[in-house]
Amino acid sequence: MARAGLRAILDAHEGITVVGEAADGVSVVGEVKRLRPDVVAMDVRMPLLDGIEATRTVLRTIANPPKILMITTFENDDYVYEALRAGADGFLLKRARPAEIANAVRTVAQGDSVLYPAAVRSLAAGRRNDSARAILARADLTQREVAVLRLMAKGLSNAEIATELYVGSETVKTHVSSILAKFGARDRTQAVIVAYESGFV
């Protein structure tokens, strides 16, 4: 029933096509390999294989993997945080409005992340660690990269960061790419997690 509702919401939005569904975490991997979607809306809690392990498996075993958007009931779900650490591109609450769901899919498809900064900050609070602090220290971010990372951690998209800093979107993309390279991060979500776990924000 939940999948049918989500499918109806997404199919109703122009530019989004639902190419398949999976009933459990094990099926997700096979369906992603077969259908090659741009985005996977992945439930955190699924039978046979949960969303965290399904995310890890998809990212580890599939070349050019899709963006992964976790779907959860509660924003303070520890499973969500672990899924983000595993490589998911963001998360969305099941109670989100249809337009928010569609926008989240578009956002991750474009390479941005979908995060709730207050929730991520709360979940990261007990996970401060030396490893993240070491990554931040080695990165030696420029002053502009520091500003960009702070805004990324607030959940702003590249376009929103560009507006905030009065620079072009391409300039922001360059700074984001530099931050990811310096952090050794797969994507901006991973960089934001380092920012929180290191105590940077």
TrEMBL record:
SUPFAM superfamilies, sorted: C-terminal effector domain of the bipartite response regulators, CheY-like
Top-level taxon in the UniProt lineage: Bacteria
Keywords: DNA-binding, Phosphoprotein, Transcription, Transcription regulation
Gene3D superfamilies found in the cross-reference section: 3.40.50.2300
Residues of the HTH luxR-type domain: 134-199
CDD domains named among the record's database cross-references: LuxR_C_like (cd06170), REC_NarL-like (cd17535)
Modified residues (4-aspartylphosphate): 43
Domain Response regulatory: 1-109
PANTHER family, alphabetized: TRANSCRIPTIONAL REGULATORY PROTEIN NARL-RELATED (PTHR43214:SF24), TWO-COMPONENT RESPONSE REGULATOR (PTHR43214)
Protein name per UniProt: Response regulator
Organism (species): Nocardia halotolerans
